[in-house]
Design goal:
Blueprint lengths: L5 H13 L2 H8 L3 H15 L4 E2 L6 E2 L1 H24 L6 E6 L8 H12 L3 E6 L3 H9 L5 E6 L7 E6 L1 E5 L11 E3 L7 H11 L4 E3 L6 H9 L5 E4 L8 E2 L12 E7 L4 H17 L11
Parallel strand pairs: 3-4, 3-5, 8-9
Antiparallel strand pairs: 1-2, 5-12, 6-12, 7-10, 7-11
Helix pairs in contact: 1-2, 1-3, 1-4, 2-3, 2-9, 5-9
């Protein structure tokens, strides 16, 4: 009788989702060698090669694609059984504040993992600007927040330091126009920063929009009517990062910081640790357009 191990299947699904053993190991809180060994045993048990390891990112073979759907169902069923039949000491609600532009790709994976381990705890996700999140956290209205800032202030923990990149429409030419048309929401912290850098370089600019909506900003930039700025790797699919040499000055790096409330207890601490592991496993790769 042959049996599939849920832990091994969980590692298989994680590698398939993130495209690499190293990032999956960080998310699973395992060593890279442990995950590699589990994948090897799984391939030996099934007598099939599940991954094509020729490129920089591991890709599923046809056998791996067939297994993935079954593996997901088995892992989900395992987690559902434990959620239904196991007593959990913690229940209630905690609040997590994250700026809109850094929700993806880390936070959804963290929330999914947290829901499995703490099924009776509801996470209220608040998507607000950094300045508002800091104010709410200072009043004790939010248990844990992430921010994008120039520096890490007292009480904060730096999770990542990322380049702030100009972005535009794929194949667009808005970055060549003068005065340069820029698009930022009214409360975006990158707006005054970009304006100062342009002014220091003697580049004339004008605001293309006057809005509090990130969707409006993204629509304006994707229509090639303006350029904006986002952290490396956080660009939505309809935008691309502009490379060095495009005629725009370099923007300073920004830090993703985490602030954890002192009264959150074990559950908030557990969520904070999952977020740390999520950022440790994820290295953003900006989608660069060619200089044109």
């Amino acid at each position: 009788m042959r049996n599939l191990d849920i832990t091994t299947l969980r590692s298989f699904v994680a590698v398939a989702d993130v495209g690499g053993v190293t990032r999956a190991a960080g998310f699973l809180n395992l060593t890279q060698s442990a995950v590699s060994m589990q994948l090897k045993r799984l391939e030996e048990l099934l007598g099939e090669q599940l991954f094509d390891r020729a490129g920089r990112r591991v890709a599923l073979t046809s056998a791996g694609e067939q297994l993935l759907a079954y593996a997901r169902r088995m892992v989900e069923m395992n987690d559902e059984i434990f959620a239904k039949l196991t007593e959990h000491a913690f229940e209630g609600e905690i609040s997590l504040g994250v700026p809109h532009d850094i929700i993806y790709p880390v936070i959804p994976q963290v929330l999914q993992r947290f829901a499995v381990e703490f099924p009776k705890v509801r996470v209220q996700l608040l998507s607000l600007f950094t300045t508002r999140l800091i104010e709410d956290f200072g009043r004790g209205d939010v248990d844990l927040i992430l921010t994008t800032e120039d520096t890490t202030t007292a009480g904060g923990e730096c999770l990542a330091s990322l380049p702030l990149l100009w972005n535009g429409a794929p194949g667009g030419t808005a970055h060549k126009t003068r005065p340069l048309r820029i698009a930022f929401s009214q409360h975006c912290k990158f707006r005054p920063l970009a304006q100062r850098v342009l002014q220091a370089e003697g580049i004339a600019w004008e605001n293309a929009v006057d809005t509090g909506s990130d969707r409006t900003v993204e629509a304006t930039i994707s229509a090639d009517l303006a350029v904006g700025a986002m952290l490396a790797g956080t660009e939505p699919p309809q935008l691309e990062a502009l490379p060095l040499g495009c005629g725009l000055p370099t923007l300073p790096e920004q830090k993703i910081n985490m602030y954890v409330g002192e009264t959150g207890g074990h559950v908030v601490s557990a969520l904070a640790e999952m977020i740390r592991q999520g950022y440790a496993a994820h290295k953003p790769q900006p989608r660069l357009k060619s200089v044109g």
